Structure formats: structure tokens, C-alpha cells
Amino acid sequence: RIADTLASVGRVMPNGCTGWIISNGAHLTAGHCVNVNQVLQFNIPPSECDGTVQHPPPLDQFPIAYTDSFNDGFGAIGDDWAVFEAGPNDENERPIDRQRAFLRTSRDADPPVIRITGCGVDNTPRGCSNGRNSDNQTLQTNAGNYLGESISNPSDVFLEYTTDTNGGNSGSPILAEDAELRDHYALGIHTNAGCSPPNRGNTGTGFEHDNLEAAIQRYPLVVSWPEYAGVVYTDADPAHPNLADGTVHRPFTSVADAVNAVPSGATRVISIVAGEYPASAGNTFVAGLDGRVMVLDAPVGPVVIGN
Q1: Which of 96, 94, 221, 201 is nearest to 158 (CA)?
Q2: How far apart are CA 159 and CA 166, in angstroms?
Q3: What φ, ψ does residue 64 adopt, rounded to 5°?
């Protein structure tokens, strides 16, 4: 592993896992990492030479609040995940306000190579007390071969790959490394280290997992708009535009498509990923037609529509 600066990925403390921001404003980690009185930290400083972790300033630390998670025991392969809300720092900033970075998600990518970026423990080379070193539980990355997806049932989906991971990498994004996806799409959540593929290599929970997908899909509603019946997603730069259906992993490419997908008389949140949505791409619409009630939400940054 080598040092990395991916701004969307941080450290979950005090248990020392990894957490990250996604395109609807939610945060992801492994289910076995979830506990009480935790914080999500970004801009992590080097550890002491013996591996003792150091903490970033208070403004880079965010209390973990609402959590929607599941795992059926520590190391549950294929059914280990958490979707959570991170509260504001002392200046009332959310992680996305501070970091201005997020990762998109995909349930359809099949890259030859993946990358794990997270906060794993490190003792190579040995530190000053012949143990862990200054890279311990800081942000590091490593790429390796993607071995594929295994689906036992709709809520037991694991991905396998060969990368350098260790304790503390739990919760890391499994990033697509190929040129098409440009290294900023995640396929799932890393949960287990391992050295004996197939079936016992490095593994994580894939986004094909129905319960995980549902938890991500409903995230804004349980926090901000519980009175709304659902969320329709749109992104000007999706991973797979030809598969667009308005779900979080397959968002529409235009705001107009998202609005038109809201049934007559329905209440919906339209979640719009940061970016530009020009009128030339069909992003003109009249809201409120046919009794539709909608909140237009831009959870991860500025949105320009119809320029």
C-alpha cells in the first residue's frame, strides 16, 4: 500500500475502520464497524513511529448519528454493510461541505482491476518499537485483480479480489480501476482480508445486495423527508447511462427524466448529483404538474440546471 489523498474517504474511530461519502450524501462502512459514540475523521495525519494514531483537528471530525446496518456476525462475507449519517462539526459543516468530494456507486461495473483505499493497520516496514509504523491506520491504497461477484441470494452478495489489505481497511470502497469509470466509482464495501483466493481472498459486500441497495436508496428520507414516498436519482455523469432507471446505482442523466418518472399525484425527492444539466440535454421541465409534489435536493454540491 502507498499513501493516498482521496478526499471522500476517512477513518471511523475509535474502532479504526474506514468510511466514505457517496453521491446521495450518505456514508458507507462495514456493518461490523458500527458502534456507539463514533466519529468519522478526514485529513488523517501520520501516526507516531510506533503506530500510535494521531487525530485530525476537530473541524475534520464528524459524529456518527443515524445508522442503517447489518451483519450476521463479525466477518460476515457478503452480508456486512452500514449506511450512516454523519453530523456536523463545530462550524456546522457536514463531511461533504468540508471535503467537497464523493464517490459514485455502480452495481453493473465489471472491471479487470479494482483498488482498495482505506485506513488499514501497517507494520511494514517495522516502526520504531519494532511494531506498527507511521503509516498505520492512515489513508493508503493498493490495486489488484478483480476476481468477480458471487450471489448466494439477493441479500448475500460478495465480491472477491486480490489486494493488500489489513485490519482497519474494513469499510473501504471497492473502486473500479478501469479507464471508463475513471477510478471514482465503487462496486461495494470491503469487509474481509484474505490470502487464499478463490472464495477466501479479499472480499466485500457488493451493491447487487438488495437490502444494502434499499438502505442507500431510502437514505435521504429517513433523515430529512420521511413524509415523502421515495427518491428518484439523476446524475449528469453516471457509470452506465444506458441502464438508467432512476435508482441510486442507475440514475437518470437528466433532471427532466427524473421529474417525468414521478407518478401523477405522488410525492418524491429528486436527488441530483453535483454538476451541470444543460437545457440542450433535455433539462427543462415544469414542476408541480398533475398534483406531483417534489423536493429537488442537491446533496453533494452545486447543481446548474438549464444553463
Answers
A1: 201
A2: 17
A3: -85, 125
> How far, in Å, CA of 233 to CA of 217, rounded?
9
Sign, CA dihedral 206-297-177-19, equals negative
Closest by CA to 171, choosing from 116, 221, 123, is 116
One-letter amino acid for residue 27 of the chain = H
pLDDT in tens, the chain (307 residues): 999 999 999 999 999 999 999 999 999 999 999 888 999 999 999 999 999 999 999 999 999 998 888 876 555 788 999 999 999 999 999 999 999 999 999 999 899 999 999 999 999 999 998 789 999 999 999 999 999 999 989 989 999 999 999 999 999 999 998 766 666 899 999 999 876 666 567 999 999 999 999 999 999 999 999 999 999 999 998 888 899 999 999 999 999 899 889 998 899 999 999 999 987 765 666 555 688 888 999 999 999 987 6
Give the integer Cα–Cα distance in Å for 202 and 154.
Answer: 21
Cell of 306: 438549464
pTM: 0.94
Secondary structure of the chain as H, E, C letters: CEECCCCCEEEEECCCEEEEEECCCCEEECHHHCCCCCEEECCCCCCCCCCCCCCCCHHHEEEEEEEEEEECCCCCCCCEEEEEEECCCCCCCCHHHHHCCCEEECCCCCCCEEEEEECCCCCCCCCCCCCCCCCCCCCEEEEEEEEEEEEEECCEEEEEECCCCCCCCCCCEEEECCCCCCCCEEEEEEEECCCCCCCCCEEEEECCCHHHHHHHHCHHHHHCCCCCCCEEEECCCCCCHHHCCCECCECECCHHHHHHCCCCCCEEEEEECCEEECHHHCCCCCCCHHHCEEEEECCCCCEEECC
User: What are the cell numbers at 225?
Assistant: 423527508
